[in-house]
């Protein structure tokens, strides 16, 4: 595991519906490697996760509200999936602003499963090659991106790096790609 001391990662999620392992596993692994990870949601309190978009999962504390985040302080933006989470977050104007800020400043964004919906909504997938959960493929293609079926895809096009993965089964490859990006 890479040494990530001094690196700051911002995780954007909705207060309900994030896929449990797509939040839990990267946060635990990245914190374990020394990164400072902040979980931000629209409301303070907690995040209620789901397993497989259906069964209730664990709850996680919200460190900060998205509207209060100073995104310029972070090295990487992480967007977990979960259908309800991603579909709700894509319409959140504060989340849109944060994602756009990361891309326009050249900082990397990592997104898994349904997480790319926020990037579709903001127009940030245009010209990018990425992967996601299969059902997001048409949205990505319609928004001008190229979809591939890979465990983890790293795309440096358009002046910023996008790291994507398909589902919780790809978490090791996904976190590995994040660590590699942050230590490059």
From TrEMBL:
<feature type="domain" description="DJ-1/PfpI">
    <location>
        <begin position="7"/>
        <end position="179"/>
    </location>
</feature>
<keyword id="KW-0315">Glutamine amidotransferase</keyword>
<dbReference type="InterPro" id="IPR002818">
    <property type="entry name" value="DJ-1/PfpI"/>
</dbReference>
<protein>
    <submittedName>
        <fullName>Type 1 glutamine amidotransferase</fullName>
    </submittedName>
</protein>
<dbReference type="InterPro" id="IPR029062">
    <property type="entry name" value="Class_I_gatase-like"/>
</dbReference>
<dbReference type="InterPro" id="IPR006286">
    <property type="entry name" value="C56_PfpI-like"/>
</dbReference>
<dbReference type="Pfam" id="PF01965">
    <property type="entry name" value="DJ-1_PfpI"/>
</dbReference>
<dbReference type="GO" id="GO:0016740">
    <property type="term" value="F:transferase activity"/>
</dbReference>
<keyword id="KW-0808">Transferase</keyword>
<comment type="similarity">
    <text>Belongs to the peptidase C56 family.</text>
</comment>
């Amino acid at each position: 595991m890479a040494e990530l001391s001094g690196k700051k990662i911002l995780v954007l999620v909705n207060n309900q519906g994030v896929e449990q392992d797509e939040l839990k596993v990267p946060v635990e692994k990245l914190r374990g490697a020394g990164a400072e990870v902040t979980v931000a949601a629209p409301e303070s309190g907690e995040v209620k996760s789901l397993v497989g978009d259906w069964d209730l999962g664990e709850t996680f504390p919200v460190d900060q509200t998205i509207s209060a985040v100073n995104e310029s302080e972070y090295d990487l933006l992480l967007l977990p999936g979960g259908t309800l989470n991603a579909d709700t977050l894509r319409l959140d104007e504060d989340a849109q602003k944060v994602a756009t800020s990361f891309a326009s400043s050249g900082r990397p964004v990592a997104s898994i499963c349904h997480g790319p919906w926020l990037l579709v909504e903001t127009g940030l997938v245009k010209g990018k090659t990425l992967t996601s959960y299969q059902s997001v493929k048409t949205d990505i293609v319609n928004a001008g991106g190229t979809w591939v079926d890979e465990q983890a895809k790293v795309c440096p096009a358009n002046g910023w790096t996008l790291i994507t993965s398909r589902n919780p089964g790809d978490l090791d490859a996904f976190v590995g790609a994040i660590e590699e990006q942050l230590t490059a």
